Amino acid sequence: MKLTNYSDYALRSLIYLAVTPKDGELANIDDIAQAYDISKSHLTKIIHQLGKLGYIESVRGKGGGIRLAKDPSEINIGQLIRHTESDFGILQCLDDNSKNTDGKISLVNIGDDTNSCIISPACRLKGVFYKAMLAFVAVLDGYTLADVLVNDKELLTLLDKNMG
């Protein structure tokens, strides 16, 4: 399964916010975009969603910016991916309707208008890929942002190098 750039940039933004601000300093979207060499306009949409989801908070006014709203140990990677991935459909029979509104992954209903595969009612391949998707997300559920920050000093060095 390949994650979208949206999810990738969301993860990178959270990593940036976890390792760069020091002593209550706030970060800004320009710095994150520059550090990762990604589009500021695309990143703005992602940061907005991360704020709505409660992962980050923004401070308005002079000296304002953004920061993590939770401790990195409280940010579950699997949950984040469920929130940022719009399509878990790696097969047509597991298309973009494969995610419920509660973020859980489900099989597309047989006979759904978006599934035109004629063998879908009898095909067992979708069950195999469905289990693989569940296993993929289950592995991610076992990790928090804190787990990927164990080398925070090295991450900070690399981010600082790209900024300067």
Automatic annotation (TrEMBL):
InterPro entries: TR_Rrf2-type_CS (IPR030489), Tscrpt_reg_Rrf2 (IPR000944), WH-like_DNA-bd_sf (IPR036388), WH_DNA-bd_sf (IPR036390). GO terms for cellular component: cytosol. One of its GO terms (molecular function) is DNA binding. The keyword Nucleotide-binding does not apply. The keyword DNA-binding applies. Keywords: DNA-binding. It comes from the Bacteria. NCBIfam families: rrf2_super (TIGR00738). This is Rrf2 family transcriptional regulator.
